[in-house]
């Protein structure tokens, strides 16, 4: 079976990291490895990884999501590479469903699940209070729920290794995040398709994965990063943040 390298960026997010890893260990039924890239945490995150025998690398200061994920991508040995926020809670059959979607066609390069809460096209139509029950109901394998999109959010970003080998790593001129638009655009330019796996739900606590310092940095860099994208590609990234007419895979 194919193995997935899960790369989790973390900085002083111990409670979130614990919940994320525990849910992965409970609900993942395909081969995987976890790689935590910790950026100077002082809250015991590194000790937790060491105690739980979770593979990790610790840097002395904050690297931002993009650089941390790149470091993890270099270390990952899996056939598929999953960039995962530390505030994501896994659910039954989540990874097996995502992998089924990713490997359903040679054209597909990146897939992502649906979630709550989010303002993106990956919004799941469900009450937040019924997470466990809804996950059981949504995560029934059903390729009719797969949809082609032009952009995927980076909270749970499953990539074929061959895509990384073809187009390279994340562009580090977009710190601390907001790399999704650039990477998705590069994948599409290279002929790969992006899919939302509507039969896969995970719970994303949203901005909880950023501490206050990182949240402020994101706000300060959102507009400059958009400007960098336009300078690099000559395209407004907001022009392709839409679902392509409801096409299914």
Automatic annotation (TrEMBL):
Alphabetical list of PANTHER family matching this protein: RHAMNOSYLTRANSFERASE WBBL (PTHR43179)
SUPFAM superfamilies assigned to the protein according to its UniProt record, in alphabetical order: Nucleotide-diphospho-sugar transferases
Residue ranges occupied by any Glycosyltransferase 2-like domain in the UniProt entry: 5-167
Pfam families: Glycos_transf_2
Organism superkingdom: Bacteria
Species of provenance: Paenibacillus baimaensis
Designated name of the protein: Glycosyltransferase family 2 protein
């Amino acid at each position: 079976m194919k193995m997935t390298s899960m790369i989790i960026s973390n900085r002083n997010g111990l409670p979130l990291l614990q919940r994320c890893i525990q849910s992965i260990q409970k609900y993942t039924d395909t081969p995987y490895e976890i790689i935590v890239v910790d950026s100077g945490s002082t809250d015991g995150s590194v000790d937790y990884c060491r105690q739980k025998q979770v593979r990790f690398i610790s840097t002395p200061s904050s690297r931002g999501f993009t650089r941390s994920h790149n470091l993890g991508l270099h270390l990952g040995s899996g056939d598929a590479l999953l960039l995962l926020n530390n505030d994501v809670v896994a659910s039954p059959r989540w990874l097996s469903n995502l992998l089924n979607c990713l490997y359903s066609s040679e054209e597909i390069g990146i897939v992502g699940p649906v979630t709550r809460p989010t303002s993106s096209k990956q919004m799941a139509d469900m009450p937040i209070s019924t997470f466990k029950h809804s996950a059981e109901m949504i995560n029934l394998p059903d390729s009719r729920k797969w949809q082609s999109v032009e952009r995927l959010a980076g909270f749970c970003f499953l990539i074929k290794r061959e895509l990384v080998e073809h187009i390279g790593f994340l562009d580090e001129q977009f710190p601390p995040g907001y790399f999704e638009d650039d990477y998705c655009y590069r994948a599409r330019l290279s002929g790969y398709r992006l899919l939302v796996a509507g039969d896969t739900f995970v719970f994303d606590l949203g901005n909880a994965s950023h501490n206050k310092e990182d949240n402020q940095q994101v706000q300060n860099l959102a507009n400059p990063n958009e400007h960098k994208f336009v300078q690099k590609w000559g395209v407004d990234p907001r022009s392709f943040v839409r679902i392509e007419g409801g096409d299914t895979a």
